[in-house]
Amino acid sequence: MRFHFALTLQALWTGVCQAAMQHYPAAAWGHYDVCKSQVYSDEGLSWDYMACQPEAADMTQYLKVTLDPPNITCGDPPETYCALENPYMCNNECDATTEELAHPPGLMFDTEGRNPTTFWQSTSWKKYPKPLLVNITLSWNKTIELTEDIVLTFESGRPEQMVLEKSLDYGRTWQPYQFYATDCLDAFTMEPKTVQDLTQHTLLDIICTEDYSRGYVWKNDKTVRFEIKDRFALFAGPQLHNMASLYGQLDTTKKLRDFFTITDLRIRLLRPATGATMVDENNLSRYFYAISDIKVQGRCKCNLHANSCVYDKEKLSCECEHNTTGPDCGRCKRNFQGRAWSAGSYLPIPKGTANVSRVCDNELLRCQNGGTCISNVHCNCPPGYTGLLCEKRRCESELGGCGGPDSGQAHLTPPSTSRLLLLLLLGSALLREAACRPAVL
């Protein structure tokens, strides 16, 4: 499924260039949908390379959902629920053995607009006063860049206490994204704030908001949001017109890029809606969690080296360009490892910088034996020579070799020891270059 998504020296370069990679932005961030185009120059037809990324998409199509505790979903055993705003309206039944009455986790990600509404539902708060705690973990097994607000739609009242968390290492460690409560000071000892209180200097601050935790009086307010675009607007302006400013920050500030990057999300439900009164211990079936929809819009992170991402065997992977490879285009292809891998750049707008992994140049990685470097991608070798850098005579690969000393063929002189030492001494300088390039054999 696709969506608009000498040997010692060679070993040295290979080891240096192994880096984990990733990619994204499009919908709210600009296009960057073309990785390369053919152009004509004095040297003939060649490629012009550009930074590129897959289109943003609904990432809930590709996730795995996990609930903790595992038996927190209602229906086993069957249970009858009462309305929060009316304790005498107890006609909502949950039964896992009956399709029409079951509320499994998958219903948080199905098509919206059905009548009646489909939703996941937890068991009721029957063990009160023990907290009714639920963790909902969304995992992609891939690095994702967020491009739109994260939106949760609750079919029940919105929780009175909740935390949204993120992971950048596939769920091994977690960091809070935002806290939600009817009373931030009481719940989390944090002063209540909104995203409008943030500035460019405090954008990465973790806040607690009371905007999305009102009780049943506000029963028509069903959504809880984590505002991505409002944070973009701190650099790009209210209408996101100044994208160059945002791109410049993302290119130069790793913490900012990482803030909008995830491999997993976790929704921690800590206290259900209880309304404006105390908990009615005589009717605990009024208190539960129910979510009808979760929206996560984003794209595969491909380090600006791919404009397509494929979903195969339950795994997302970038279709890499620019002579890069890996699930996130995070390393150079074999034979393109002469210089350290580098992610693409959004700047200069509108094409960005591809930072293509290279084969040859006119400096240290020269084509040998009279070969010509074409667009840093391949050597155009003279007759009688072949190899990545024209370093081999064609007869070397033929049966019988090049003949003896009287064959009339000149011997190919291998690179001298002094040249190999020179390359090694200049290694640190090469690593500061943007493009990956292959080792000289």
From TrEMBL:
SMART domains tied to this protein: EGF, EGF_Lam, LamNT
GO annotation (BP), single: animal organ morphogenesis
Keywords, ordered alphabetically: Disulfide bond, EGF-like domain, Laminin EGF-like domain, Signal
Region forming the signal peptide: 1-19
Record-annotated EGF-like domain positions: 356-391
CDD domains: EGF_CA, EGF_Lam
InterPro entries (UniProt xref): EGF (IPR000742), Laminin/Netrin_ECM (IPR050440), Laminin_N (IPR008211), LE_dom (IPR002049)
Stored Pfam families: EGF (PF00008), EGF_laminin (PF00053), Laminin_N (PF00055)
Domain of life: Eukaryota
Cysteines paired by S-S bonds: C381-C390
UniProt domain Laminin N-terminal: residue ranges: 48-299
PANTHER family in the cross-refs: NETRIN-G1, NETRIN/LAMININ-RELATED
Designated name of the protein: Netrin G1
Organism: Oreochromis niloticus
